[in-house]
Predict the 3D structure of the following.
Amino acid sequence: MPVPKLKRFLESQKVPYHTIHHSTCATTQQLAASMHVRGWEVAKATILRADGRYVMAVLPAPYQVDLEKLRAAVRAESLAVVPETEVRPLFPDCEAGAMPPFGNLYGMPVYLDERLVDDDSIVFNAGTHTEALRMAFGDYEKCVHPEHARFGVLPGPGGRAEVAK
């Protein structure tokens, strides 16, 4: 079952969703593989600090955040990925690293990579490493009201990031 906070929110919004039970997965790429879907269809959330405030970036599983592009979208002087030890207390009802892409439920703005906009549905961690949710993308957008930007990059050779098309 999704974490209670998320479940209550979706039910209060009368949003239909489908819970997908899967084997334990530590990464969204593993989640995609266990569900037999392409990584592009699975959204992951990354928490960053922009000028001292937390923001959530949501992007397709294979991508990484291009800090400079997201910094410009957030209109911040500084932007840095928050270490997992600092993220954990922000999502006390979620398993470490399994937070759903609903930063609005945790008091933070959400920035969505535009690559997810073209999909009919969105799949994401439901707060645990053994459950995911699938819901209509339009419903996700109505619930979260994310800001759209293009900030995802694919990891390149030698660990460098390359701009994804």
